[in-house]
Amino acid sequence: MASSEPKLVCRGVWKIFGAGGRSLAGPSAARLTSADLRAAGAVGAVRDVNIEVREGEIFVIMGLSGSGKSTLVRCLSRLIEPTSGDILFNGENLLAASEARMIEIRRHQMGMVFQHFALLPHLTVLANVAFPLEIQGIERAAREERARRMIDLVGLSGRENAFPRELSGGQQQRVGIARSLAAEPELWFLDEPFSALDPLIRREMQDEFLRLQSVLKKTIVFITHDFDEAIRLADRIAIMKDGEIVQAGTPEDLVLNPATPYVAEFTRSVARAKVVKVAALMRPLNGTLPPASIRANAPVAEAAPLFSRGAETLAAVDGAGTPVGLIDRAAVVDVMMRG
Ligand SMILES: Nc1ncnc2c1ncn2[C@@H]1O[C@H](COP(=O)(O)OP(=O)(O)OP(=O)(O)O)[C@@H](O)[C@H]1O
Ligand SMILES: [Mg+2]
Fold first, then answer.
1. Which of 229, 258, 274, 338 has the most CB atoms lying inside 10 A of its own CB?
2. Nearest atom (ligand 1) to Cα of 72
3. Is the pLDDT of residue 339 over 60?
4. For residue range 286-296, what is the model confidence (pLDDT) as tens digits?
5. Of ligand 1's atoms, which has the minimum distance to the CA of residue 67?
6. Distance between CA 305 and CA 273 in Å, rounded?
């Protein structure tokens, strides 16, 4: 579970590609539409983005192709230079950091995984995973020892001496994941890491990723254009459109209270009862306690069968079993029907 400590804060960040970008960005640019920018010969790829990524959470950025996701995530590590705004990492202003300091931060504190695996074709699995450690100047025995651990972590033990071309897409992406973890980053960026994989492998990789995260507890920014993937993985989701974040919240927030028709369109196909938590539908305790109970953080779908024995109301309980509210059959049915 994520703590509330912000690891990464992004305030008023703009990235305008094209001539005159810098003069267009800034507070007054908030009034510029994409059309204004286009007319000036510029593309507002990231427009006034404000987000906070908390320590230990999986923060998913979602949006259609061209909405600015990759540009934003590259701005966060300054692989792309933002046109304006502030980016604070552990409280340090990255836009004021020297290039040398940024290289240091990227090498030691940030990890990146991209959609196209970007492995070095002439190096073995072991050498690919050990590569970032070699760059750090770690001596061979130590870096290979750590690389072997990472290879084991992603389930590729035994394939250390294979070359990338000898691996399936899913296996290549595991190598990419192992490589990005080798340097033990605090902040882990993944840009559509599973999009090139077929659906079954993709699901397997998502499970694997959640298993890894339950052990490693990294702070993660994960990009996808797939809402199903987003709700499986995310603590919170930010939805991007035309360079702007149109809404950020828990999967539940987005499904229950979509801020715009665009967000509603993304969330429409999701079975609400699997996303919405009992806690979202609770009313306060009123002195009488129903005999049957359900965890407040369980999805509504799990509450439904308990009503089948004729109960009209259940007690919602916290992790310690203490009642924290009441949930009515009608509220559950409403969510299930609208799903
Ligand atoms: N170097 C560049 N120069 C000019 N425009 C760019 C550049 N890089 C990206 N863009 C534009 O910025 C916008 C956002 O692109 P970006 O790659 O961030 O989108 P995305 O959401 O990652 O899309 P996808 O899901 O296809 O990866 C697009 O309109 C794109 O054409
Ligand atoms: Mg992209």
1. 229
2. 18
3. no
4. 988 998 999 99
5. 21
6. 12
Q: What is the pLDDT of residues 149-177, one digit of tens each?
A: 999 988 899 999 999 999 988 899 899 99
Q: How many CB atoms lie within 10 A of CB 72?
A: 28
CA 66 to ligand 1 center in whole angstroms: 5
Q: Residue 308 corresponds to which amino acid?
A: S
Tell me if 45 CB under 6 Å of ligand 1.
yes
The ligand that comes nearest to the alpha carbon of residue 83 is 1
Delineate the domains of the chain, giving CATH numbers in brackets.
Answer: 53-80+96-272 (3.40.50.300), 274-338 (3.10.580.10)
Task: Kindly report the three-state secondary structure assignment for every residue of 165-213.
Answer: HHCCHHHHHHHHHHHHHHCCCCEEEEECCCCCCCHHHHHHHHHHHHHHH
* pLDDT tens string 138-150: 999 999 999 999 9
Counting every residue written for the chain, the total comes to 339
Of 80, 22, 71, 24, nearest to 49 (Cα)?
71
Task: In the chain, count H helices and then E strands.
Answer: 15, 13
Q: Which distant-in-sequence residues (6+ apart) come within 8 Å of 65 by Cβ?
A: 225
